[in-house]
Design a protein that fits this description.
The protein is of the alpha+beta class and 332 residues long. The protein has 11 helices and 14 strands. The chain has a 7-stranded antiparallel beta sheet.
Length: 332
């Protein structure tokens, strides 16, 4: 029997019964009451997020430089130096917009993961677009970060087409609710954006193993390009990933948030960014409505207001473990 994610048209009553959270419910019941507007700047501006993460000693990609105004474009060559790989991203971008990934250098040209050649002038033009606010929230003028390009762990790149997959953990009050791996396809051009054709792969909160995958809203078990299995993959350092995610809640003060991470082959899990309005496709990736996890966490947080990080993680792992023979951990 096909699950709810196979039908695109559902009545409001059916969606409610399935625990599916829509944008209006997310905003009214979970974002607005739990995320004070004054805290948004800490996560909407990646330079601010990286600053407070460094204060908490959370592992993050090294920043090579920041371009804040057009006059600084003259020093881009000096800023890049002999670096052969790096990532350029808007400080206030969202949804992966405006991110340029450089994988290597070939003479005077830079190469994207797809093999496409990029000149230094094209890089400067892209930086100009970032500064002009082409990719920023609200179209406001922005600044560009040039940072370390994550060398994703092999087990991760094996299920992603020409792009490093990332992991999103969504939380309420510091309790991990759901996790999803976003893997690139040929269609998504190496980007981990589900709307552009990337894969959404649900991850068991208890173990860090992949349990369900979707492509354009339909369940799949193999990567459409690589033809490799997507389920049963163990994400490395899962304990550390959950610890970083909960620490991001503590450092931002946001009650409802999503934390994006990547696993580097040598450096381990790295926090990439924090989102105060995480998207809802994670429900389809897991085949579970978020409300079925939000309500138990609301109840737990009310009954146990002094739960510490270890207790929050333990509660989530016990309560939201995949029903596939997973043995729950002990709850202190």
């Amino acid at each position: 029997m096909k699950g709810w994610w196979h039908r695109f048209i559902r009545t409001p009553g059916e969606l409610h019964a399935l625990g599916v959270v829509g944008i209006n419910m997310r905003n009214a019941r979970f974002v607005l009451p739990n995320n004070p507007r004054r805290l948004y700047g800490l996560v909407d501006d990646k330079t601010q997020t990286k600053r407070i993460a460094a204060e908490r000693e959370i592992s993050i990609p090294e920043t090579y430089g920041i371009v804040s105004n057009p006059a600084e474009l003259r020093r881009v060559e000096r800023l890049l130096g002999d670096r052969e790989s790096f990532v350029i991203k808007p400080s206030r971008g969202s949804g992966g917009k405006g991110i340029m990934v450089i994988a290597e250098k070939d003479g005077e040209h830079y190469l994207k993961p797809s093999g496409a050649r990029v000149t230094i002038e094209e890089i400067k033009h892209h930086l100009q677009n970032i500064l002009a606010g082409l990719f920023s929230l609200g179209g406001l003028r922005d600044k560009a970060l040039i940072e370390y390009r994550v060398k994703a762990a092999r087990i991760m790149t094996d299920i992603s087409f020409q792009g490093a997959p990332d992991i999103r953990v969504v939380m309420l009050h510091g309790y991990p609710l759901m996790a999803m791996l976003r893997a690139a396809t040929r269609e998504s051009d190496g980007r981990s954006n589900l709307h552009q054709g990337a894969l959404g792969i649900g991850v068991d909160i208890a173990t860090g193993r992949t349990i369900h995958a979707i492509h354009h809203g339909k369940s799949v078990e193999l990567h459409p390009d690589l033809k490799v299995p997507l389920l049963g993959i163990q994400i490395p350092d899962w304990d550390h990933i959950l610890d970083i995610a909960v620490t991001c809640h503590e450092m931002t003060g946001l009650g409802y948030l999503g934390v994006d991470l990547m696993v580097d082959e040598e450096k381990g899990p790295l926090m990439i960014e924090v989102n105060a309005r995480p998207g809802l496709a994670i429900q389809m990736a897991n085949g579970v409505g978020l409300l079925k996890r939000l309500v138990p966490v609301q109840r737990r947080a009310k009954e146990h207001p002094h739960d510490e990080r270890r207790q929050k993680i333990s509660f989530s792992r016990n309560t939201f473990a995949s029903k596939s023979g997973i043995q729950p951990t002990s709850l202190p």
